[in-house]
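Hi, here's the filled form for the chain we discussed.

Project: internal
Contact: R.S.
Residues: 352
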Amino acid sequence: MLVQVAHILPLTVVQRSRELPLPGEVLVRAGQKVRASDVIGRAVTTPQHLVLNVAKALGVSDLREVRQYIEREVDENVEEGDILASRSGLGKRVFRAPVAGTIKLIWRGNVLLRVKSDPYELRAGLPGMVTSLIPDMGAVIQSIGALVQGMWGNGKVDFGLMNVLAQSADHVLTTDQIDVSMRGSVVLAGHCESESVLRYTAEQRLRGLILSSMPPELERIALELPFPVVLTEGFGERNMNTAAFQLLSTNDKRDIALNAEPFNRAKGTRPELLIPLPGTNNMEPPPEMETPLPGQRVRLLRNPYLGYIGTIDTVIPGMTRLPSGLRVQVANIRLENNELLKVPLTNFEILK
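And the returned structure, exactly as it came back:
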């Protein structure tokens, strides 16, 4: 059985499919170079509609008379404050558009207004070259550099200069460590345990934040931050794994792309950090799945050992019956504290 691989590589080539959530317009061409923050696709999401009661606003009781007071037509675009209808007489009444939008229907004294909204914009997520297009949906982008795959991301994408704040893998982030000199940069830190610290990073207008871990109750705050947040180890209180810390910390003051895409094993997506580096395009992309072998370093993916690092001691042949009654393929994993666990192959990933 094959096991998913989490990559921590000093130099590799990656190809990533970037797709809109629904069909739209692809804005790039094959062979085009893109930056991580470039918009490569755009789509209109489900629009919001408002029903405007013009009859009531103008004080008209006979709904058959209202149409003569409406000064706009169906499919006409209006801006906020534009006059939609007016009625002269004793004390002229004017009804204005509360927001910008398009008139989609006029009936029985009402106007149906489709609210103007910004389209969904798909960003490249990593710097590189567009190798192929996905019609109406997006593109495949190839990039070369150092790659670190994380455990959690808040869904945002950006690119900037990395400022290494953490001096060790067990670093804990505090507000006094962040100052105005870090504004506009991507900060590499360790564990964040406080809501106030997380909110303070937004006040300092960072470009991105790389953490080892944080308590699960901070997830809502991290989702609200205006920049990408990536956790290399996930939720809880965990030090950054040594391979990721060494690779990232030795690239201080280099540009780094943060694609904080949520971890979805079914879709094959996960948050990633890419440091662009010179290389050749004839390198082979790293495998996404591998056969588990003794000696391989792994990370556990299920509670109560979520995020723990260990080494494959043995892969048990055949199927093993778990206490739950399920029969699955299992490996003996020796944790860093020397504890030995029997773990289903689906419950860990190989670190490479």
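Let me know if anything looks off before we file it.
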